[in-house]
Amino acid sequence: MIVNIIIVLFTVCIFILYGISLKKNPLSTKKLVAIGMYAAIGFLLYLIHFISYPQGGGITLFSMLPIMLLSIFYGPTTGVTGGLVFGLLKLLNGVFIVHPVQFLLDYILSNMALGLAGAFGTNTRLRTNIGAFIAVSLSVLVSIVSGVVFFGQYSPSGMNIWIYSCIYNISSAGVEGILSIIFMNFLPLIKLKKLALKQS
After folding, report:
1. Which end of the chain is more exposed for a tag (fewer CB within 10 A), N or C?
2. How far apart are CA 196 and CA 18, in angstroms?
3. Which residue has the higher pLDDT, 195 or 68?
4. CA torsion, points 66, 111, 152, 162, in degrees to nearest 10?
5. pTM of the complete model beyond 0.70
6. Among 138, 113, 132, 21, CA closest to 69
7. Distance of alpha carbon 119 from its chain centroid, rounded?
8. What is the chain's Cα-based Rg?
């Protein structure tokens, strides 16, 4: 299917850019430890579901937040790596995979996108919020594309699959992402970042 080929090629391009970023910003041992810790916290929060949807969706206890904080504290390369690890950890809780390309979208790319939260700067609340909002939006967009390509058969009869996928993903991952950003604004990010960097 041509759509699957396009998605695979897009994924390859993403990983090439990721590899270039890793070469420019190599991960220290302490950053790797931070990646493991934040991804593990995200996974533990992911296990706490407030609302569960069919096909694996739902709203969890701010599970997106640790990866966004990781990116804000240590930079987008570290954040994207944490998102990758977080996505792989989700496999431990059971998966809903209908196609290898759907796995790439829902478990790899959507979670890696969260690691871009720190890409727009973190010296002001506005920049931090813009980065977090764009990261969440990209993550949800990837899930919407997955829903259109692989889960159209679950849409109600007569409903456009794009509308169905938007409703499904925005009301789950989208809502959780917005709630995570709101909660993030109550945190003393500058102090937490200084503490995180001091320990690195």
Report:
1. N
2. 23
3. 68
4. 80
5. yes
6. 132
7. 14
8. 17
- At 49, list the tokens: 């579901």
As given in the structure block, the two tokens for residue 193 are 């970042």
164's CB contacts (< 8 A; 6+ apart) are 147, 152, 154, 155, 156
Residue with tokens 């993030």: 184
Look up residue 103 and give its amino acid: F
* pLDDT tens digits for range 135-165: 999 999 999 999 999 988 888 888 999 999 9
Helix (H) or strand (E) holding 51: strand 49-52
Which SS3 state, helix, strand or coil, does residue 15 take?
Answer: helix
Helix ranges (DSSP H) in the chain: 2-24, 29-46, 65-74, 76-89, 100-103, 110-114, 125-150, 161-169, 175-184, 189-199
Give the per-residue pLDDT at 200: 58
Contact present, 180 and 62 (Cβ < 8 Å): yes
What residues does 52 pair with on adjacent strands? Answer: 58
Which one-letter amino acid corresponds to residue 146?
A: S
